[in-house]
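The methods section describes the discrete structure representation at length, but only in general terms. Each protein is reduced to its one-letter sequence and a matching series of backbone shape codes. I believe one specimen quoted in the main text would settle the matter. An entry of this sort, consisting of the sequence and the corresponding backbone structure tokens, reads as follows.
***
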Amino acid sequence: MEQRREETGRTRGYLVGCLVAVLLWSVASAQIRYSVSEEVDEGTVVGNIAKDLGLDKSTLVERKYRIVSSNTDHLFHVNQNDGILYVSRKIDREEVCAQSSTCLINLKTVLENPLEVHYIGVEVLDINDHSPSFPEEEKRLEISESVLPGARFQLKPSRDGDSGHYSVQQYKLSHNDHFRLEVRDKGEDGKIPILVLQKSLDREAERRHALVLTALDGGKPPKSGEMNIIVEVLDVNDNTPVFTKDVYSVALFENSPVGTTVVQVNASDLDEGQNGEVYYSFGNSVSNKLFELFEINPLTGEILVKGLIDYEQKDKYEIEIEASDKGIAPLTTEKSVIIQIVDANDNAPEIEVTSFSSSIPEDSRPGTTVALISINDLDSGLNGKVICSMSEDVPFELSPSLQENMYSLVTKSPLDREKQSQYELTITAKDEGQPPLSSEKTISVVVSDVNDNSPEFSLSPYTVYVTEANEPGVSVFSVKAFDPDENDNALISYHIFRNGNTANELTSFLNINSETGDILALKSFDFETLKTFQFQVVATDSGTPSLSNNVTVNVFILDQNDNAP
């Protein structure tokens, strides 16, 4: 309301000033003054000069009335017959008077015989025939998002070829949330529009604002002109990088080749330029060991295998990844990447033999423990589950223990050293991985001897023929026994069985070598006295307890021609 009152007061003052100027001009410069609107048609009557000067038509014919000079004498002409002033062509007030508030054209006219000079003033009245226009159709402003509310941005004013009330009277700004318009009245320089920031800008929310500034003149209806205002919001590094996932958790097979992509992390930054350009790195908490196993591409965020990944050393890694922008004061975000190592079947089972008895007596009962077998596989799951086996054609077997992957090697059936004194046992351990891995271990088991065999004579009974008149003390024959045992159990000694019976009295004339079994006759035999006899030889081994066997020896005396008729 106050602004409208001020404008009304200024308008009234302007009109009063114009009226005073017109009165002064009439006294000093002319006798007659007319007014005509601009843009009227050619031939429009401006005024009747003859009538206003009090001249009749006869006087005009006799004395010749004409325009002799004017600054724009081509705009008007006078009819010689009736003294009426006409418009010669359409008048553009803005062309004739530019931006003058009053457009007055002075005509110098003469009436001859006698010569009279008359000054005619024609005021060209303005009409609203021009629209406001801005110096440029589009205005671009670059404003940083860090600029505080209250910042002011002066714009170039709109110009209107019309003057006075028909010139630019007001500005309007299109509706928006961030800017308002102030208008400063600078008098003759017109009204200056000023853009005022009333709400902080956020480039990430809206990077460009399109506004329309409208200038309106005082016509009814008013004419208007528009200028587009494009506000480009300049970025400030006010956003940290944000990872696209809340959790990065991946599985990686052990023994993956160097260069294998583990996972690609990705972060975005709402800023632009270097403020929004993201690079990746390991966090400060990452150990030197992890630097030996993994690396990260700073541009793409790919985590790659760098060293040997061994599940048996560690089955899980947690790596801190940093995403930083390239602003002058970089902003950084951290994210954990969990890498779960998947076991590969890369370890064959290991067989360890403990508490091994390399020798076992042949009289051991079935179920006797020979050795303890321990199986170990560094892999896990099925890759570490082991099945242990042994060939079935041996008198031994593997007996699982209560503890996993522990076995006892035990006897399965009776042993007989005399049939087989040593066994080469091959134990096979095979895991259930795909493909499976296996290992073998061969152990040698010696069956130790037990004195379980008696000596056996090569003949039973023995039949011996001795010629009479044999030489005393000379071996007459020999017995031989064998023992399948070994060592002391197979060491045989011989003796002649003597029990004192009359039937065995002749054994007193015999002697035997206990080691060789050679039998000696201590006297000569006489066929005519003794034709045959028998005795028993006993073979005894040296085992504990010892075992023995005996054999019957039948002796026949052969006759010689030792008696004359």
